[in-house]
Amino acid sequence: GPLLKITNLSKRYDGNKIALKNITLEIQPKEFVVIIGPSGAGKSTLIRCLNQLVKPSEGEIIFDGEDISKAKGKKLRQLRGKIGMIFQHYNLISRTNVLKNVLNGKLGSVPFWVSTFGLYSQEDRLQAYNLLKTVGLQDSLYQQAKDLSGGQMQRVGICRALMQEPSLILADEPIASLDPKSSEVVMDYLKKVTEERDLTCIVNLHQVEVAKKYATRIIGVREGEIVFDGTSEELSEDI
Ligand code: ADP
Ligand code: ADP
Q: Which segments constitute the ABC transporter domain (predicted)?
């Protein structure tokens, strides 16, 4: 069955116009979905509803067979543990080294003292190292995050998300702060690692050409509604 089943999802922020209108959508395992649309269309709101960073006003979100929109406490933490997040501004700890930033992906799945005192197991360290190697950062393990380029920071962000061993990756404008060359490197890695691990990926982008290059499915959003849902080939230029 589908990995995500979204039914009649709506979001209205306090005192504001409606950001999402009655979205119904199914996403299958291993899809690489790109959501495109102009600024203010509702892309971020949709992504944030999926992991409950934003509480939907109405609707249901079944993730991996469970209703994440109703989940609370331990159940919500457990479901969120299966969702890796990638952010526009990377959200790394700037004065912490690359390896520890990646190990932070384990937060919540290790006892608090392990993360507090950096007492990660050799196995976890090896996993983090191997992830960093797949994105070409094996020589930057002990550099502080703040000393990296934007493209390098986002590659660390990808590794941190993968460290959770998620089944779903959500990336909210992952390349919006990067130059075209770094954007290509980051998208190439994101596509490669998610394919290799059979992960499902949902990425917000505003560049149609980039969406067409990587997506197995493109969803166009405008004013809180889905205006297109199809393959790159089906997407006409006029969206
Ligand atoms: P996009 O990601 O496509 O740029 P957003 O989901 O950020 O769109 O925003 C959709 C709409 O919701 C916009 O009108 C935006 O101003 C509004 N919005 C987003 N976040 C908030 C918020 N925290 N409070 C109030 N309104 C918001
Ligand atoms: P983006 O283009 O990535 O959506 P924005 O500048 O629109 O970035 O939003 C940045 C932050 O401000 C987000 O956390 C968003 O939820 C919030 N936000 C956006 N629009 C509004 C709004 N109208 N009122 C309150 N908060 C908003």
A: 4-239
